[in-house]
Amino acid sequence: MGAWGVGLYSSDMAADMRATIKSVLRLPFDENRVVQILRECESRTADDPNDEDHTTFWLVLADQFEKRGVAHAPARERAIAIIDRGDDLAMMERLGMKPADVRKRGAKLAELRARLAAAPQVSKPRSTIKAPQPLVLEVGVLYACPVQRSSCLTPYLRDNYYADTPWVPDGWRQFVILDQGRAFDYLAWHQPLVCKKPVKQKPRLFDAGDDLWWELDTPKTCPQRYYDCMRIEAIGRLPIDMEKARARFAKQSRPGIVYLGWSAHWGAINDITIADCMNPSSHDWHLRYEPKGLVPDEGPTMMRSLGELLT
């Protein structure tokens, strides 16, 4: 990958790690359990000293804990040892960082070490989730939301955004939930099978067998406020044979393939919302397939019609 910059958060991994730590600290667990969860999320990086992001993992963890008032002596001591031994700087050199930049990073790590050495030995109280998050969506139900040029209402914009920019829908995106649960017994997630082809009219249950192309997406979150903001509607329950669904989307041997139940903890921890699969992407129907007169290829995660899953 190569060295990205002298700052601790110059790499994508470090930036992602910062967001993940913030999310995991919402859970009502003690410091040891929080660290265990974070290590499970990045097990190879956390445990393999030869991994190029290994030192970054522990330095970011210690830095974020210090900034957020979380005291965890083993994580702090591990980060201090990494700095004292020069492990991180040695890795940066191997990744191609220039000597001048290595010196600059060394100065930043010295500042971090001083903060860690002076950090309190007792954690500050923190706000956590008080009860398991509700499961807003239901397995087997067909849902739809209005879209404008294949894009749904975006739930994380400022409250008055659409008052300034009038939004008039011109079609519908639809999806059905095939799996759901709670990561670590608290963080709700739902795994959607998403219709690739938007339709002009509100979907109907008896049109589910049409050739609209459906793709299994990774697990997503859907709090009630997002459900309401996106104007999601429950169309009705489909007679889906879940045994057929599990067989159709069985775990594949090839890396990178999405299967039923895949990475539920990751989606929940990082709050990857259902809106992410209701907006255009490079593989969206209007951007990739329709302009070129193409149709998708059926494969491990893509099917032409819901018909093969219905009883």
Structure description:
It is a single chain. The protein is an alpha+beta fold and about 300 residues long. It has two domains: about 10-115, no CATH class; about 140-310, no CATH class. About 35% of the residues lie in helices and about 15% in strands. The protein contains twelve helices and seven strands. Strands 1, 2, 3, 4, 5, 6 and 7 form a seven-stranded antiparallel beta sheet that branches. Helix 4 packs across helix 5 (about 75-85) and helix 5 runs antiparallel to helix 7. The longest helix has 19 residues, at about 100-115. The model has no long low-confidence stretch (mean pLDDT about 90).
List the helices and strands and how they pair.
Layout: H1 12-24, H2 31-41, H3 43-47, H4 54-67, H5 73-85, H6 87-94, H7 99-117, E1 141-148, E2 151-152, H8 161-164, E3 171-183, E4 187-195, E5 214-216, H9 224-229, E6 233-237, H10 242-248, H11 264-269, H12 285-289, E7 302-303
Antiparallel strand pairs: 1-2, 1-3, 1-6, 3-4, 4-5, 5-7
Keywords:
311 residues, 7-stranded antiparallel β-sheet, 12 helices
